[in-house]
Amino acid sequence: MTAEVLIFGAGAVGAFYGSLIAKTGTPISVICRSNYSAVKSAGFTITSPQYGTFNWSPTRVFSSADAARAANVHWSYIVVTTKALPDVSDDSALLEGLVGEGTAVVLIQNGIGVEEPYYTRFPAAYVLSAVTIVSASQPAHGKISHNRWTRINIGPYLPSSSSPSSSSSSSSSLTQREKDAISKTDEFTDLLISGGVKDAQAYTHQKLQQVRWHKLAINASMNPSSVLSNGSTNASMSLDPELSIHLKGVMEEILHTAPKILGAPFPPEFATSERILRSTQKNDSGSRPSMWGDWEGGRPMELEVILGNPIRIAREKGYEMPRMQTLYALLKMAQRNRDTARSGGSSKL
Ligand SMILES: NC(=O)c1ccc[n+]([C@@H]2O[C@H](COP(=O)([O-])OP(=O)(O)OC[C@H]3O[C@@H](n4cnc5c(N)ncnc54)[C@H](OP(=O)(O)O)[C@@H]3O)[C@@H](O)[C@H]2O)c1
Ligand SMILES: *[C@@H]1O[C@H](CO)[C@@H](O)[C@H](O)[C@H]1NC(C)=O
Ligand SMILES: *[C@@H]1O[C@H](CO)[C@@H](O)[C@H](O)[C@H]1NC(C)=O
Ligand SMILES: *[C@@H]1O[C@H](CO)[C@@H](O)[C@H](O)[C@H]1NC(C)=O
Ligand SMILES: *[C@@H]1O[C@H](CO)[C@@H](O)[C@H](O)[C@H]1NC(C)=O
Ligand SMILES: CC(=O)N[C@H]1CO[C@H](CO)[C@@H](O)[C@@H]1O
User: Fold this and answer.
1) N or C: which end of the chain has fewer CB within 10 A?
2) Would you kindly state where each structural domain of the chain is located, as residue ranges?
3) Which residues form the Ketopantoate reductase C-terminal domain (predicted)?
């Protein structure tokens, strides 16, 4: 049986990976929103230094989850590539009726705690958690610009597994369901590799969560600090004597707390805060974190998955991350003030 894949939120990341999996001949359908009419009539055009310029017309283009439900397809994979904004909407609710028996929900999103709403809502489905370092954007309707990097790591989300760190090769203590989740992870990874994503790699639950927290050290330090310093570039922040101390402080806070939460030290090959800082200092490309773009564009920032959830998860275990807490409190209020000013001063918050 051919896998049917549905991409929910076909923006930069969703359309990029969807267009590559499509090269395997697998039918790929998409749910769009603001860019629906452009994609419906002309598909996507992807430009990439690695894959060249090509057009991709998805098998089906839906304007909403309701429209997708009406099509009555059994989806093998539903790939979620919306921005993770749990304070704005619970996107898992929109997938009711689309997630069937044995469907794997693949979350390609940033941040911490993105899996839980799907895992809780769909006990009969599999949840796969993916982290990517791709750099992609959608400068115009249906036009996807891939800038660099493709790497994506995927792991089964098995928070209550008796042996979360075991790999597929030493899986004797796993339940059948957990083994199936691991097979689904391997299958999806193979689809990506067959589509040309050579550095797609399957990880265990434990290692994938380690990757999420490690990546958080970069996002949670650079992104909020750029917004609060009015759009500083990564390089300028990491070269400033005081700001670089601050960035390192935030990274250290996360890199020290995460191993206590996850119950294992980071693998030795994961970069230290010094190494991250040094490579940022050398990279004077003038680039800014995407959170700055969201702030400037008046869009909601991924504050909860980058700051709020990690703070709360740590706090439940008895750990405080005070630098993170300060960034969170300040940015949340800044966002509220921005939105209140825009809506004419009558915020209900
Ligand atoms: N871009 C990157 O280079 C990059 C790299 C690493 C990780 N990430 C992460 O990947 C995730 C996706 O980022 P992205 O850059 O691809 O964002 P994006 O370009 O904004 O794509 C998200 C898409 O989802 C659509 N959408 C949101 N809610 C929807 C709904 N209810 N129904 C239908 N469509 C909906 C949006 O439509 P609208 O246009 O209407 O909003 C948009 O097209 C984020 O968690 C991000 O942090 C991105
Ligand atoms: C700047 O930092 C953000 C991390 O939040 C990242 O998304 C972006 O790729 C970085 N740019 C460079 C050139 O390192
Ligand atoms: C932030 O920077 C912009 C230029 O990028 C400038 O126009 C604006 O006045 C600055 N805002 C503050 C509060 O400094
Ligand atoms: C710095 O930028 C160069 C070229 O844009 C890229 O190859 C390199 O991976 C970047 N390094 C980091 C740490 O962002
Ligand atoms: C987080 O950082 C990565 C690079 O490390 C970048 O690709 C991603 O877009 C960043 N996320 C946000 C929300 O800025
Ligand atoms: C999510 C996304 O990238 N939407 C884009 C749709 O197209 C308009 C302009 O054509 C862009 O401004 C949006 O950013």
Assistant:
1) N
2) 5-203, 207-342
3) 208-334
